[in-house]
Amino acid sequence: MIGRRNKIPEALGIHVGRDTLTIARVAKRAGELELLQLVHEPLARDPGGWPVELVGEKLRKARKRINLKAEQAKITLSSDLAPTHFFVMPPITGDQLDEALKLQLQNKWGNTGSELSYQFQIVEKRGERCRIFAPSIPTERLRLILGSFLDVNCMIDWMEVEGVSLANLFVYSGLAGTKPVGALQVGSNWAEIHILRQKQIVLSRAIGKLESDPSQTDSGTQTRVEAGGPGAEIEAPSLSSSYMGRVAREANKTLDYFEIELLSPAVERLILVGETAGSAGLPGFLAEELELEVDVLDTGNRMHDATGMYQANVHGLAVAAAIGEG
Fold first, then answer.
1. What is the tally of structural domains in the chain?
2. How would you write the chain as a 3-class SS string?
3. Are strands 72-77 and 10-16 parallel, antiparallel or unpaired?
4. Does residue 77 surpass a pLDDT of 60?
5. Domain span at residue 197?
6. Taking the model in full, what pTM does it have?
7. How far is CA 114 from the centre of its chain?
8. 236 assigned to some structural domain
9. What is the C-alpha separation between 308 and 315, in angstroms, rounded?
10. Taking 70 as the threshold, does the pLDDT of residue 7 lie above it?
11. Is the model's pLDDT at 21 over the cut of 70?
12. What count of other Cβ atoms lies within 10 Å of the Cβ of residue 251?
């Protein structure tokens, strides 16, 4: 039989982190993914800021190394750009619920979010109350972000927040099930803990670094090899014991709140994500302090890496954006 060969669908996954930009081109095959191209660049910006000129420069540079045209292009944003809030609301529905949530979000944003783009989903119903997951972003910021990609002929089809991307990645990798699991994103001066249950995000909380708390030891300078060629690798910086201690204490507060205040089963496993997730001593330290199993993210063997550069804890959220909802 002679006919046109069906092209394997490809998707572009983009992760805008707090200080990095990662773009992954992924081919979707039955039951397996293939990472075809990967770009990972530092992107220094203020929290909540979108430096248009710098982003444009990074995207033009990336375009020389990766094909930005795909059947679908999806992006996941860090929580400083599109924060997630969880609200406890009475069991109202429809326009009433929408208006109530809009008011709550406007109160959270204050004067910085006069016009918001937002979505919401009920994650749990209990008695006369329900908990609602609601990510949001100022509409003007959203326009700036989409405009930056449009300037390099990359049309964004879908946008989501990191917690949702983590849930999708954990489901795909077989890390999410009926039991709750924690995901801890760790940067050199920030962290964020997420809890997933029933294959969805049910709690997120950011952890900031104290200004007086150094994030690196005196000798722990970061060695970074740009992810621009086969075999390139990103080494994690050393983290100070005081900073690791703060992350452990704040993570423990969140885990206690989830178990005690939300009357939920205890989290027994924590997965580390982020460029500093592989810092020497961090997994063992957290395992001892939190008294649970701690591992650095490993997405398993369901994805073929044609680039030779893939590190799950560093690049996984860009791949998750490309995967989309499982």
1. 1
2. CCCCCCCCCEEEEEEECCCEEEEEEEEEECCEEEEEEEEEEECCCCCCCCCHHHHHHHHHHHHCCCCCCCCEEEEEECCCCCCEEEEEECCCCHHHHHHHHHHHHHHHHHHHHCCEEECCEEEEEECCEEEEEEEEEEHHHHHHHHHHHHCCCCCCCEEEEHHHHHHHHHHHCCCCCCCCEEEEEECCCEEEEEEEECCEEEEEEEEECCCCCCCCCCCCCCCECCECCCCCCECCCCCCHHHHHHHHHHHHHHHHHHHHHCCCCCCCEEEEECCCCCCCCHHHHHHHHHCCEEEECCCCCCEEECCCCCCHHHHHHHHHHHHCCC
3. parallel
4. yes
5. 10-323
6. 0.88
7. 25
8. yes
9. 12
10. no
11. yes
12. 23
**Which residue type is seen at 56?**
G
Domain containing residue 48: CATH number: 3.30.420.40
Q: Is residue 3 in some structural domain?
A: no
Name the nearest CA neighbour of 322 among 43, 23, 21, 6: 23
Q: Which residue has the higher pLDDT, 137 or 227?
A: 137
In this structure, of 32-46, 153-167, 202-216, 233-247, the range with the lowest mean pLDDT score is 202-216
Residue that is written with structure tokens 């949001």 in the block: 136
What span, in angstroms and rounded, lies between the C-alpha atoms of 62 and 227?
11
Amino acid at 166: L
Mean pLDDT of the residues in the chain: 87
Sign of the torsion angle spanned by Cα atoms 303, 200, 163, 189: negative
Query: Does 4 map to a domain?
Result: no
Residue found by looking up tokens 């375009």 in the block: 63
In a domain, 2, yes or no: no
